[in-house]
Amino acid sequence: MYRVASASEYLVITGFGITDIKIAKKAWVLPGQSCNVLDLSPVNYTFEVQAMSAEKLPFVLPAVFTIGPRIDDRDSLLKYAKLISPHDRLSRHVKELVQGVIEGETRVLAASMTMEEIFKGTKEFKEEVFEKVQLELNQFGLLIYNANVKQLVDVPGHEYFSYLGQKTQMEAANQAKVDVAEEKMKGEIGAKLREGRTQQNAARIDAETKIISTERQGEGKKEEIRVKTEVKVFENQREAEVAEANADLAKKKAGWVKEAQVAEVEAAKVVALREAELQGEVERMNALTQTEKLKAEFLSKASVEYETKVQEANWGLYRKQKAAEAILYEKEREAAAQKAIAEAAFYACQQAADGELYAKKKEADGLVALAQAQGLYIQTLLDALGGNYNALRDYLMINNGMFQEIAKINSQAVQGLQPKISIWTTGGEEAARGGSTGAMNEVAGVYRMLPPLFKTVHEQTGMLPPAWMGALTDSADHNNAN
User: What is the pLDDT of residues 369-379, one digit of tens each?
Assistant: First the structure.
């Protein structure tokens, strides 16, 4: 069969005529050969690697790796075809292999760097991880086509990055407050300066206006006096009116001088009063500026002390957590040891029970075998005795010594009792002499048996027969032996 692979595939051929394996895009597959299709498209693997920095601070590194076989190297394709291709590319085996390599190298590299170095040098840290991981993946014929490392994430219970972000936010907020206060101070001072300068210029212009107005009025009065003087010179007959006019003029001059001096004094006082007000405003703004500065300094010190207390509290909490983890680890080890001891004891009991059961089974097997042998033995004896059960029973009792055992037990039972034993016979003289016996002889024998029987009962138990049956005598027709 002629096989052709697609653009992202290779043919892996083994079998007859091929020493190891053959990788090709197209080839003839001969009888005795096996052909598999090798897919070279890369696969995305998403991981959340948990690592720990040199300060023993844990963190989570989310990463997405695009990994596939190296197609530009023949040896890498051979390694991939031999080691990875038997498994599915999306199988758990391949994912655990890649994940183990990535997690191992990431943890080793993170353990040699501080958290600040990892956080600030994320690009260098990423490149270092990729280089280490690629070296390990080369032995499997795999290549990292692309890799993306996401933002470092805190492990639950160890909020390092969140605290660091809060610290940065507080510093930025404090600096912003200080900048706002400074700009506000500059704005208020500038506004007050502009307002003061405006009022100063307005007062100066008002004073100059009054002075110019007074000068103009004085010039007008002078012109009027000159005219009146000329009129007085030319009008002698009006001397009285001129004198009166001169007196009025003198009064008016005094009033004008007074008004001018008062205006000058008022202008000077207004200027001084405005200067004092502006100076007080400046002093007040300086005091406010100093107050804001002191507030900013104390706030910065309070922020530093707060961060210090937070770090100390975090350090105390971390030590307590580690102590608790150590205690938990010891308890787990003790529990594991107790579990192992219990399992060992259980295994020993189980082995003992199995041994006892095996011994019981062997004993039962021996009993069964013995019973089968005895059955065969009895069957053989029964067959030899022609099926006579009574003869077999007598033989077994004699062979096993049962009669001797019965006699021994009986002798032990009456030992030390000193019993009275009576022996009699009812055969009669004729039977003893060999005479003939008949029915009456049997009756006579029973009758002759009664006296010795009563005698024996009396001797053994002390009981006498009833009066109607007669009385016992010393002479009886029987032989009595004690």
Answer: 888 888 888 88
Q: Please state the length of the chain.
A: 482
pLDDT-derived band of residue 480, with 50, 70 and 90 as boundaries? very low
Tokens standing for residue 482: 């004690």
pLDDT band, residue 476 (cuts 50/70/90): very low
pLDDT at 481 over 60: no
Convert the pLDDT of each residue in 221-230 to its tens digit: 888 888 777 7
Residue 205 token pair: 């212009």
- Model-level pTM? 0.32
Helices 160-234 + 239-384 axis angle, to 10: 170
Would you say 26 and 5 are in contact if contact means Cβ atoms under 8 Å apart? yes
Tell me whether residue 422 is exposed, middle or buried, using C-beta atoms within 10 angstroms of its C-beta: 0 to 12, 13 to 18, 19 or more: middle
Contact 84, 115 (CB under 8 A): no
Helices (H), 41-157: 74-83, 92-111, 115-120, 122-137
Name the region of 418 (left: φ>0; alpha: ψ -120 to 50; beta: rest): left
Please, what sign has the CA dihedral across residues 469, 474, 475, 480? positive
SS3 content of the chain, % helix, strand, coil (to 5): 70, 10, 20
